[in-house]
Amino acid sequence: xxxxxxxxxxxxxxxxxxxxxxxxxxxxxxxxxxxxxxxxxxxxxxxxxxxxxxxxxxxxxxxxxxxxxxxxxxxxxxxxxxxxxxxxxxxxxxxxxxxxxxxxxxxxxxxxxxxxxxxxxxxxxxxxxxxxxxxxxxxxxxxxxxxxxxxxx
Length: 153
Known about the structure:
Elements: E1 10-13, E2 28-33, E3 49-55, E4 68-69, E5 80-81, E6 94-105, E7 108-112, E8 121-126, H1 131-134, H2 145-151
Antiparallel strand pairs: 1-2, 1-8, 2-7, 3-6, 3-8, 4-5, 6-7
């Protein structure tokens, strides 16, 4: 298998220092990009949201992961396959979040709803896909996701 190497484009500055259960919907954080990438942000401020891809740097290397988990660890929910959840305990520790873009100043983005912890390396940022890019038919969700909606902020 080929080796995959990523180089961070920046880091997250967040009030969240440790993993915690629950929603990050109200968390305001910053993405501090390398200054030489500032020009790559041109036009991004016209979007209301951004997708942030980051590395979950606080996960221990070689920590292992379970193939089946309870969504958000809730005992009232049945176990499902890891890939059916957004559990942070994943094979590669890659995070992906759609965030509200609050502002951009030079090479610093301020966002709301990013579930990355303070110091997380940012791998990439994208303007969100328009619905026509996502047209793959009507989306469906399992019933257990309704329980997660009720506890979200």
